[in-house]
Structures are given as C-alpha cells and as structure tokens.
Amino acid sequence: MGSLASERKVVGWAARDATGHLSPYSYTLRNTGPEDVVVKVLYCGICHTDIHQAKNHLGASKYPMVPGHEVVGEVVEVGPEVAKYGVGDVVGVGVIVGCCRECSPCKANVEQYCNKKIWSYNDVYTDGRPTRRVDSPPPWSSTRSLW
C-alpha cells in the first residue's frame, strides 16, 4: 500500500498567469488519507473549459494552476478504507473530486449540483489546500494523481 504518512513532491504542467502558457511546476501532494486512491496519470485530456480556466476567461482563475480533468491512470496506492479499487487497476477521473455527500443532489447521485462540490483543479479542499489536477479527498474513493 505504501506510506500513508508522507507527502509527495510531483511535477505537473501549470499555467502561472492568464497567458495560459504551461510549464513544469513542482508541488507537494497532501498525505494519502484512509479513503484516498493515488493514481499515476497515464493520459490527461485538455478540453476548452481547461483553456478558459488557464487564460482566466471566466475571471476566477487561481495560479499556479495545473489544468486537465479527463484523466486515465493506474492505481499505485490505496488507503486502508478503500474497497472498490486496488493497486494496478486502471481508472478514469473526471472534473468533480469531492462533495458534501449529505445534500439532496448528493443523495440522488447528481453531485454536480452539490453547492459544496470540489473541482479537480482551480478550487480549494475543505482543509484550505488548493486542488491541482486530481489530488482529491473523499467521496470518490478519492482519486489523486501522483504524476
């Protein structure tokens, strides 16, 4: 399973300002939690929404930003409470990586309408740390990207 106690230094491609130019960016992933799934990103698509975010077309971008939310990767670590995924599984990750799990949209499995949803990037976790790509908390069995 790997160490659940250590943070990891990783490199992503980040926009650092509204020019939208991407360049290598080193950052630290938060510690792997009991419900987390750590994913080695094999492929990541970029859609036009990512471009709008990187270039601040919507006026709410936070930099540095590691865009991209159409991820396919391999599970390299799971927390002890994860039952659905195992090391070596190939998984896909979308743009929403967290929600409250208590409101009516969440209970109806339409988390995209949750007022407390957490986006895979350009957002903030409940602990105040910024999201960068798919470094995410529960409830998605909490897929996080490692590379």
Automatic annotation (TrEMBL):
InterPro entries: ADH-like_N, ADH_Zn_CS, CAD-like, GroES-like_sf. One of its GO terms (molecular function) is cinnamyl-alcohol dehydrogenase activity. Pathway: Aromatic compound metabolism; phenylpropanoid biosynthesis. Keywords: Lignin biosynthesis, Metal-binding, NADP, Oxidoreductase, Zinc. It is an enzyme of class 1 (oxidoreductase). Signal peptide: none annotated. Its EC number is 1.1.1.195. PROSITE patterns: ADH_ZINC. Its cofactor is Zn(2+). This is cinnamyl-alcohol dehydrogenase. It comes from Zea mays. The gene is CAD2.
